[in-house]
Design a protein that fits this description.
With 291 residues, this protein is an alpha+beta fold. It folds into 2 domains: 125 residues, Beta Polymerase, domain 2 (2-Layer Sandwich), CATH 3.30.460; 134 residues, Nucleotidyltransferases  domain 2 (Four Helix Bundle (Hemerythrin (Met), subunit A), Up-down Bundle), CATH 1.20.120. Helix content is 47%, strand content 17%. The chain is built from 10 helices and 6 strands. The chain has a 6-stranded mixed sheet with strand order 3-4-5-2-1-6. A hairpin with a 4-residue loop joins β4 and β5. α5 packs parallel to α10 and α6 packs parallel to α9. The chain is elongated and about 70 Å long. The N and C termini lie far apart (51 Å).
Length: 291
């Protein structure tokens, strides 16, 4: 990785390759490397949209992926947009270059051109690298509003708080049973990654007037949270000791309580303190329950 290819060299290789492929009619760079609003580093992906006259030769025969280098690992995916199938080939090359290719048929790009707004992957930013048939001339400019969170309704806020406290019961039960894997799933994934992370993102959005784009799966939280909150969150990630995980559970609920109150006060929503008190008492009783 010390000798990772320069961005200009990678893009030059991509352009040369696309120009040599008759079926490739356009190629766009999208996402972080196509936007000056998103920080990048040596490990940032190259998100490449290939618009082709026929997807079958690319989706069925993957030898073309080796034209850009020797493959270290490959992931395949597909999905529909505007009723047409697209294909994803995510490739990490041995030189450290990671290119996420998206394959669209020309007809899909034409439907995107006729749609009222850009799909999120282009609204986040794009650069046209190759366009053999002037297919992209009608593409709308990016608004850079994709992936920005909407302000939650009071119903959404209450549902998240209630789900969080419901999930604590599973953590307590599985810690008491010495079922570490199940307890870790409920505590580290559901409570913290799915629920607390969303709440923390709402808290950041309040300070940014709902104009901030969260990073994928919590990326950027350390940068945008105040040091106290980040330290409290980091302290909830512990090892395999059951008592450490009990402590982590109560640290998690304390952090959630503080942030939920701040979010609720900012939005004019009521935090259910009675539920909090009942569940906190219940969790403590399970921890003190004899085996």
């Amino acid at each position: 990785m010390k000798n990772a290819p320069r961005e200009v060299d990678v893009i030059d290789r991509l352009v040369q390759w696309a120009n040599s492929q008759p079926l490739v009619r356009a190629m766009l760079l999208e996402s972080s490397r196509a936007s000056d609003r998103t920080p990048i580093d040596i490990l940032s992906d190259y998100d490449v949209l290939l618009v082709v006259s026929d997807t079958k030769p690319f989706s069925r025969d993957e030898s073309w992926l080796q034209d850009l280098g020797k493959i270290l690992v490959l992931f395949r995916d597909k999905g529909r947009m505007h009723g047409l199938m697209g294909y994803n080939r995510l490739v990490l090359y041995e030189d450290g270059t990671k290119i996420d290719y998206i394959l669209w048929p020309v007809a899909l790009l034409q439907r995107v051109l006729d749609a009222p707004r850009l799909p999120d992957l282009l609204d986040h930013g794009y650069q046209v690298l190759v366009d053999k048939d002037h297919l992209t001339h009608r593409l709308k400019p990016s608004t850079y509003t994709a992936y920005i969170l909407n302000k939650p309704t009071e119903k959404e806020y209450s549902a998240l708080v209630e789900e969080f406290w419901w999930e604590t019961s599973y953590v307590a039960k599985n810690l008491w049973r010495d079922e570490l894997v199940h307890a870790k799933y409920n505590l580290d994934f559901v409570m913290k990654f799915e629920l607390l992370r969303r709440l923390l993102e709402w808290r950041i959005e309040i300070d940014h007037n709902w104009s901030w784009k969260p990073g994928a799966v919590g990326r950027g939280l350390k940068k945008y949270l105040d040091s106290r909150t980040w330290d409290e969150l980091a302290s909830t990630y512990v090892g395999a000791d059951i008592n450490e995980n009990w402590d982590a559970l109560f640290k998690t609920t304390a952090l959630f309580r503080r942030i939920a109150l701040e979010v609720g006060n900012a939005l004019g929503y009521r935090y259910p303190s009675e539920l909090d008190e009942r569940m906190t008492s219940y969790l403590q009783s399970i921890r003190n329950l004899e085996q």
